[in-house]
Amino acid sequence: MTRTFLTRLLAVSSLISAVAIVGWVHQSPDEAGRVALKSNHPTTSPDDEILLGRSLVLNHDCAGCHGGVSPASKQWLAGMTRPDQEFLIGPCALKLDAKPCWRTRPRNLTPDNATGLGRFTERQIFNALRYGLRPEDTPDVDITSGTPGVGNFPQHPHYLAPPMPWPGWRYMSDRELQAIAAYLKRAVKPVSNKVPESEGPPDFWASAYTVDLIGPYPPPAFPAANERVP
Amino acid sequence: MAASLAMPIVPVAALRAQPVVVQQVGSKPAADTLRNPPVLRNISSRPHTVEVNIVAAPARISVLPGRLTDVYAYNGSIPGPTLEAREGDRVIIHFRNELPEATTVHWHGVHLPANMDGSPFDPVPPGGHYDYIFNIPRGTAGTYWYHPHPDGRSEYQAAMGLFGAFIVRAANDPIATLPEKLLVLSDNRFRPDGSIEFADSNSTQSNIDMENGREGNVLFVNGQVMPSIVIRKGEVQRWRVVNASAARVYRLAIPGQVLLHVGSDDGLFEHAVEKNDIVVANSERVELLVRGTGKPGSDVELMDLPYDRYMPQTRPADWNTSRALLDLHYSDRVMPAPVTLPTTFRVVPALDTATATVTRTVVLSQGMINGHTMDMSRVDMQASVGATEIWDVENVVGMDHPFHLHGFQFQVIDRNGVPEPFRSWKDVVNIPKHEAVRFIVRYADFPGKWMFHCHILAHEDHGMMAVLQVR
Q1: Is residue A58, in this structure, part of any structural domain at all?
Q2: How far is Cα B393 from Cα B404, in angstroms, rounded to an integer?
Q3: pLDDT-based confidence at residue B29 (cuts at 50, 70, 90)
Q4: What's the pLDDT band for B125 if we cut at 50, 70, 90?
């Protein structure tokens, strides 16, 4: 991963929105560090859920990889449009010709039916963020476990390609992940942009996303072995 | 089911195993002439009736030269024997299952009653029997085929050798005088001892087989490797090609010749279409006219050109290789008289889109239809007998899915919004990666539960299938 990307990743890991939304009343964070957004426009009041989702999409910098500079830009979340937006995953990231090498590509997150998320449900998008499961390869069902074959978790999971940071973002609350899915499906304009399929190993990254490598979900109770009560 | 008639069944032992190809040191081995599979014997003497016996049983036959392989076979031959019938015939198949597992026989593409379709709803248990009885509607002459369709076991049983052709002829066939060849295409993989190889479960190859469908590295035509066909100067031959592979897509071409594409799954087109190469997805059929235009005495090969149907994660390293299927020898014998072809082969009446009552959207993702896998207890769509509907089938993933609907033949309207240049009857349509196809279909005559699914057999077995109930 590039240095810029890592810096960006660290910068947006905070759950508190730092973005001032024009026309909205700023509220103080609640105990859990979340900001409740309330409209002060009496006639049109979009869903709180949509605005929460939008806020999370902004402060997690989805657009940093998935395209667009702001919600006002044409290619907002419409996926890779230039070759430099591709990622090289594997030893080739350090040494160009090293193998194995996979090129992964940020997909179109707009609700376009043919090229975006239009044909997937909010539940499938939720499962992608919570469990890393590719919506096109995973049935539209409630998943209640992270163990293959249990609670509708697929026997042979197909994961989103790195460097999609879902292993960290899965720790957002259910409400937050649902809000992101709702925003993407309902409040973003569909844009037609066919991003070629990412490359990857035949196990669809299953060996890269083991518990040993990415940690357990849910996280261990506080205080865990490397933590202490202040 | 009516009790089966006490009719003699062709003993498996009476059928000869395929001969071994002899290699001559120092010279190119003579290719075997393409042989037709045996034809099922009609045991009825009633007019307009075809009555046959088919037994599915384990066998040990020569599939590769010099070795014997444990297989499943219909009446001891691979491909299974060809069922020949005419439009308007009543067809009666006495089927006996001598396999160690349940099976069915699906008459792929034929318009018949739901309980004669060989769907997974009507399994024939090991040791059991089933009489498939149906009438062949007029106007449906074409190249059909038959193969197993049990729940979850189609890929295995087909790989073990169960598939055969089913040719329906028209009384007024416009090209009945042309010499005809049947080409049943299949592929397989073998261990060094000659046994059929299936990947160990949980191995990398097993993942690849599940994604791509199981492909083999040995390509057969009528169970032969690189057989030969001879064509005379000036001759026109009619080739009926059946793609009986579990997953492989063929892109057929003959170097130096433009093919005449004259028919698809469910019969002839109205007019011939010139094509440099023709994509035949699995379970599709094509009818080609091949011409003796090459230099007399020379040989060319029927080629299977590369076609990228794959997801990059599981694309085979050698996908971009052309493979030869058979040798075509241009003989120096000349046709006694020039061959003339009709300009119009038949009339394909249009299904009027104005009569369509609804458009169904069917989303194909990887292993799923509309986000779900097959549930034998669930009906996914309800429709009425006699209704005409438009289906909009969208493939939203990065590999091709060949889409098949049981029971009712359809006409493709457009692909990605581009209108289909001409009408034809089909029952399978390949939906390439990230593309969409619309077709129009009328649910004529037969109520019941009808399957629709991806015809990559591994996908079908793992649940990329759904149920249309017609009432």
Answers
A1: yes
A2: 11
A3: low
A4: very high
In B, which residues are within 8 Å of A119 by CB distance? 363, 365, 394, 396
Q: What is the per-residue DSSP string for B124-188?
A: B-TT-EEEEEEE--TT--EEEEEE---TTTHHHHHHTT--EEEEEE-TT-TTTTS-EEEEEEEEE
Q: Which of A137, A196, A203 sits opposite B204 (nearest CB)?
A: A203
Interatomic CA distance for residues B312 and B177, integer angstroms: 46
By residue range, what is the domain housing residue A66? 3-214
Q: Given 3.40.50.150, 2.70.70.10, 3.40.50.2000, 2.60.40.420, which CATH number is that of B180-334?
A: 2.60.40.420
A227 assigned to some structural domain: no
Judging contacts by C-beta atoms under 8 Å, the chain B residues touching residue A158 are: 366
Q: B389 forms bridges with which residues in the sheet?
A: B358, B441
In the prediction, which pLDDT does A46 show? 59
Digit-coded pLDDT (tens) for A132-163:
999 999 999 999 999 999 999 999 999 999 99
Return the closest-CA partner of residue B129 out of B99, B100, B94.
B94
| Identical fold, B12-169 and B353-470 | yes
Prediction pTM value? 0.88
Out of A139, A194, A196, the one facing B368 most closely (by C-beta) is A139
Return the CATH architecture of domain B353-470.
Sandwich (2.60)
In a domain, A181, yes or no: yes
Nearest CB partner across the interface for A202, out of B314, B368, B373: B314
Segment-wise mean pLDDT, segments of 10 residues, chain A, 230 residues: 47 40 42 41 61 97 96 96 93 87 97 96 98 96 95 96 97 96 97 95 95 95 96
Contact of B90 with B50, CB cutoff 8 Å: yes
Contact B366 A137 (CB under 8 A): yes
Q: What is the CATH number of domain B12-169?
A: 2.60.40.420
Please give the residue of chain A at the shortest CA–CA distance from B372.
A139
Whether A160 is covered by a domain: the verdict is: yes
**Cross-chain Cβ contact A114/B436 below 8 Å:** yes
The ipTM is 0.86
Average pLDDT, chain B: 93
